[in-house]
Amino acid sequence: MSFPLYAPAEEHDMLRETVRAVADEKIAPHAAAADENEEFSWEVYKALVAADLHAVHVPEQYGGAGADALATVIVIEEVARACASSSLIPAVNKLGTVPLLLSASEELKSRYLAPVAGGEAMFSYALSEPEAGSDAAAMKTRAVADGDSYVLDGTKMWITNAGISEYYTVMAATDPVAGARGISAFVVEKSDEGVSFGPKEKKLGIKGSPTRQVILDNVRIPAGRMIGEPGTGFKTALATLDHTRITIAAQALGIAQGALDFAIGYVKERRQFGRPVADFQGLQFMIADMAMKLEAARQLTYHAAAKSERAMHGESQKDLTFLSSAAKCAASDAAMEITTDAVQLLGGYGYTRDFPVERMMRDAKITQIYEGTNQIQRMVMARQLLK
Ligand code: CAA
After folding, report:
1. pLDDT of residue 4
2. Which residues are catalytic?
3. Confidence of residue 2 (pLDDT cuts 50, 70, 90)
4. N or C: which end of the chain has fewer CB within 10 A?
5. Is-contact 255 382, C-beta < 8 A?
6. Nearest by Cα to 59 from 113, 108, 13
7. Pocket test for ligand 1, best of 235, 240, 247, 370 (most atoms within 8 A of CB)
8. How confident is the model over 198-218, as a mean pLDDT?
9. Residue 92 CA, closest ligand 1 atom number
10. Beta bridge partners of residue 183, listed in sequence order
């Protein structure tokens, strides 16, 4: 008889305590400034590397901590509870490297995963383009074979941590007439000649994590940097998202938990009409609903993480596509509602940058958009149900 894996083990609970302590002490104090100044915090990165929390999913054989998918979710959740931007360090390191874990040769894996595990390099994922967002297969970036090389040309857009990551998984068309089946995946290095970056996007939230275009101008790379076989890049890209949409759910859970915890503390302190506002049933019902939605999304996310872990170890990917989209969609919609309600509970104070909940509300919004909008998630779920 097999038991569900989604109940965290004692080790997961211990990990949560460790991450929360690091996040409270070393990450939370930088969160407001990272947002205000729109700067990536290298201090936070160093703190995550020192605690070995920056890329926990990398398997031990490549020098990593070998954390399972649920442990990775817990790390991202707890970092996001303090600072959503910082949670993109472990999340995007996973997003950039899962294509290698799923499809790359041993040579590529050992060469590129070890520096990520060691904290010497970060790894971003470059799928979207200015004209190819939801319709990712409509990409225009080309990779043309030339002897032992491929030459890449095109512009990737909305690339999280672009410019600060050393390595990029880049999807490009090697056979443009073949559509999705003509796309291949490559490792591109920041230092490759012809790679440059656009200016930082001016965003509503997650301002402490740079988002830029990655511009590829006649970038010649060895053919051995292709991840998997020619024409398999789009499948690798989507199979990756099946695993990593769960990390966006984790980020949403963390942001929402941060907002809920702050709001609970506030309503117990804030006095109106001669008593703490927490005494009023209208607010009590809001708090109860927030916690209920959060816990429901958390259980779905942990269940999806357990599926992801089993799929990584060879179990069928069946159901993972549905569950990861469901978790991402449910958790991000919950985070948007919960953070908006947290602002409401703080009233006028909640609307100011003197309190963290408005930042959390702005940060929550992106979780409904990236790694596939929630409309795309609903489309993916419906396709699974109806096929
Ligand atoms: N795993 C593996 N292969 C898959 C798959 C999956 N989950 N889903 C589909 N495929 C395969 C299909 O079988 C098909 O292959 P065959 O023709 O050989 O059968 C191929 O991929 C194309 O599939 P579709 O015909 O279904 O493709 P589509 O073009 O109709 O739509 C989509 C696919 C679901 C809409 C997809 O384009 C999508 O998910 N869009 C959203 C894009 C997205 O999520 N972008 C995120 C960017 S990353 C980001 O945001 C990160 C960040 O910064 C933090």
Report:
1. 52
2. 371
3. very low
4. N
5. no
6. 113
7. 235
8. 98
9. 54
10. 173
